[in-house]
Amino acid sequence: MSEKRDLNGQVALVTGAGKRLGREIALRLADEGTDVVVHYGKSKREAEEVVAEIEKRGRRAIALQADLRIISEITALVTRVASEFGRLDVLINTAANFLEAKFGETTEAQWDASLNTNLKAPFFCSQAAASLLAKSGKGVIINFADLGGLQGWCEYVPHSISKAGIILLTRVLAKELAPAVRVNALAPGTITMPGDPPEWEQDFIRRAPLKRAGTPQDITDAVSYLIHAEFVTGQVLVVDGGKSL
Fold first, then answer.
1. Active site residues
2. Smaller CB count within 10 Å for the chain: N or C?
3. pLDDT tens per residue across span 212-231
4. For the chain, where are the alpha helices, taking DSSP H only?
């Protein structure tokens, strides 16, 4: 069995890392020895709290703001990463929205909001970061899809299309950036966190073969696996308790 990759001193950029899964992923990477760039859009206070938690773990961290719908701000974000840390080894594209919009009721604004945040932003983050990741020699990109991108949810049409795009984007980037950078995607099922409506978990338990909702650790374990799995690229790892069955 090969040894796990040593992440000590490596640098990760996690988009949308001020809250929810982005926050948990940033903390998990710090626990594994990674210095972390905590990106945020509007959640400055929460992002600074994540930075403080990472520093308590003995790792370096910085909170950087950028509107990922604007390419120039993405470019400035990655430029700042290069100037502050001099390297980038892992990019986790978690920033996303989840907008309800049925086919006949979808507006142009809803379409643009879903596609710009969920698909355009990960593409241009990956484009901007590609050269830094390649210099690492073992660069990693992990994109976040979800079951909507595999199943197609009629209540969330633009969202589902954006996440289906993430899946194909992952496959294209895996070919484009190999062998220096591996690119994979995660497709979570229902992941419940403190404060979430209890009916979410109840509905998921009813429908999932494993009879439980997912936890943040289920996702951070999957992220860790994809970072360390050096013979895996271009894949979509479904973490859903069997719900998609």
1. 156, 163
2. N
3. 878 899 999 999 999 999 99
4. 20-31, 44-56, 71-85, 108-115, 121-136, 148-151, 157-177, 198-207, 216-228
